[in-house]
Amino acid sequence: MSQTSEGFRPPQQARSRASLQKVLTAAEHVLAEQGLESFTVAAVASQAGMSVGTIYRRFDGKEQLLHAVKDRLLTQLETNVRDALRSASPDLRSLFTAFVAALAQTFADHDRIFPELLDAQRSDARDRGLAALSAIQDALLEALPPDDASDVKMAARTIIGACVHRAATCRFWPDGRSWKTWAKEATEMALTYLTSPAAPPARM
Fold first, then answer.
1. Which of 27, 41, 107, 151 is most buried, with most CB under 10 Å away?
2. Within 10 A of 106 (CB to CB), how many other CB atoms are there?
3. For the chain, which domains are there?
4. Are 153 and 141 in contact (CB under 8 A)?
5. How far apart are CA 123 and CA 111, in angstroms?
6. Rounded to an integer, what is the distance from CA 20 to the centroid of its chain?
7. What pTM does this model have?
8. Ranges of the chain whose pLDDT falls below 50
């Protein structure tokens, strides 16, 4: 977990780290099942089976706890994308397909949490989110040859933006697709752009 979590006090011992993960898992559960309006330190403590005071010894309050939850999910997003790119064949189709699939799967795994976090987003949390999106974009560009980097960057930014927008609006504006189907269709659209005659030749 990043140590940028608004003064969050990172644990030093294995037992404390396990306790922290229990708190964050409980916080994710409260967000997913009850929503942002019911998200309180007391609700998280109840879900985790620990006292409110125990949580306050680690976090200053609700906002810092929310920030830590978002930080954990964004760190997972970065890790998932990098792992997928490392496992893919070193060609444009394979790498871009792996990139979009990992991005979509992470949002799918937390499809009831990301919308709540996006609703709660403040300027400092937005900066952490933008840093994560920049990191996964850079991971894709680094995995590819330097040819046509500007076009790949354009496609990646479009896919990332569409993914975040879909996560934020899926409750109110559903498209009737699963995340897996969305990833396949979004990948094909991006690859069509990257390999079209109007665009500079891209390596397949």
1. 27
2. 24
3. 14-60 (1.10.10.60), 64-195 (1.10.357.10)
4. yes
5. 22
6. 20
7. 0.83
8. 1-7, 203-204
